[in-house]
Amino acid sequence: MHPNQALIEQFYRSFQKRDAEGMVACYHPDVVFTDPAFGELRGAEARGMWRMLCERGKDLELEFSDVRADDSTGSAHWEARYTFSASGRKVHNVIDASFECRDGKITRHTDRFSFWRWSRMALGPAGLVLGWTPFLQNKVRTMAKKGLAEYMATHPEG
């Protein structure tokens, strides 16, 4: 197994256990994370996001598969089932991830998923009607970043 494949698998095994410190140990200090909900997060923000999600994801169930990697890139498929705290609605999110790796750490992590599909589950009727619009995407991203900033203000990075 390629070392970067093992690194990505370790990231997801840690996520399955909600072990945020195990996850962030896989990240380079200057990591760049991007997804449709949070947008772009760098360094401490990316690490803080995983800490927040692991702490708050009490009913999180995660499966991952198709992990591949070479000397500089990698990919994986993963699925998360959880209750979206803002609405209390059940979500089954299907995500494809891509990675860039250097010096045994993840330097770039991009998660791709259908925001409209996610918003229909997480937000119900509003997501169904508006989930495809930039307006709702921007509103969700603003709320996600605000929640992350509040979390990080009370949970300084260790």
UniProtKB/TrEMBL annotation:
A Pfam family it matches: SnoaL_2
Residue ranges occupied by any SnoaL-like domain in the UniProt entry: 8-109
Superkingdom, natural source: Bacteria
InterPro entries: NTF2-like_dom_sf (IPR032710), SnoaL-like (IPR037401)
Record-given protein name: DUF4440 domain-containing protein
